[in-house]
Fold:
Amino acid sequence: MTPISLAAEPIFHIGSVAINNSLITGVVGSALIIALFVFTAKKIEFHPKGKFTSVFEAISEQILDLIEQVVQNREKAIQFFPLLMTLFIFIVINNWLGLVPGVGSIVVNTHEGAFPLFRGANADLNTTLALAVISVVTTQIYAVKELGLFKQLQKYFSLNPIKLFIGILELISEVSKMISFSFRLFGNIFAGEVLLIVISSLMPVVAPLPFFFLEIFVGFIQALVFTMLTLVFLTIATSDHSEYNHDEVRPELKPADIEEASSHADSRHI
Amino acid sequence: MNAEVMKLLIPGLTIVLGGAMPAFAIGWMGAHAMDAIGRNPEAASKLQTIIILVVAFAEAIAIYSLVVALILKFV
Structure:
């Protein structure tokens, strides 16, 4: 069984900075994503011809629709789209790159010992922590842009003792968001790698196959969860709670409609 | 109970306790989601995203204990 290491292993050093095997895979993944999207962007037309372009357009549109479903506002959805699409594509491509044959199995000899040359980028806590920090900090920036700096600071600092206490809790929750974002992604992907190594060492021929399918699924779901959570936090942070009015009557519902609806409901019950 | 036995036992117990509770929580949530979909089948698509999110929250607890168990085992 190949030795399992929780931290990413250094392959070579540039000055005093160690270049990890996770970093190498992350750079390869980023280059792949940039190449794919630049290629697609060059071929984009009003009536797309190639299948390749259509696939990317379909993915983008699906994600935009998903965002719009949560935000309930097309303009805001388009505003949030670049961040969320980047997070989703980066995470999903890197999760799946960790499953490609050769990742983890090509071993190079370094000064500190023999280490795998590639290791899934999200199987390193540094990558996931960076993603978590990007997500939380960008949420704050969007909130300041939407509500103004003073109103955003009011969420955390206030002279009212109850609100001050809530503000402290909010500050703690921002930190815990980062921890939960980073550990969730790291734990899932690293646990998947350990699972695959253990199963492969027990029975290398057919047994790992269903677990590879499981890992493809987990990689997709975790990318979706990361994106959705960022989206939900963005939506909460950018919505103004002080303007919310409980007594507001929704204009599109007239009393006649409500009566009709309730009579329908009655007839279905009976 | 010498140190070596504990070193084998504790990671196992960590993941047992940390996995049992979220498993219970996720099962409970799934059951209630099915209840809700059974009552109101049109809401299924709306419930789906919420359920994925909430299950991810509960699953995160299991993942934390998994990370702790992995640290105990391999570090």
